[in-house]
Amino acid sequence: MATNNQAVVEIAQTASKFSSSIVLQAENKYIDVKSILGLFTTLVSGHSYELHVHGPDAEEAKAAMTEIFEKHGLHVTLVSE
């Protein structure tokens, strides 16, 4: 069961505010979080995800993305590289 549309739209909109690359890893798939279509086909409640953030505003992006995922009850782990 996919998560609600509101979560997908908010996640993509939030990600789009940052110039950093924000990639969601779900099992062996990597999805650009700025892609609404990619999120629709990937985000499923109850799964855990890894978030890879790289770029000039990565710290702000990590904080904002963590907050939005938690708001929608999605479990995400930030990967530091």
UniProtKB/TrEMBL annotation:
HPr domain segment(s): 10-70
Origin species: Paenibacillus physcomitrellae
Q: Which residues form the signal peptide?
A: none
Which Pfam family name is an example for this entry?
A: PTS-HPr
Q: Which InterPro entries match?
A: HPr-like, HPr-like_sf
Name the source's superkingdom.
Bacteria
**What is this protein identified as?**
HPr domain-containing protein
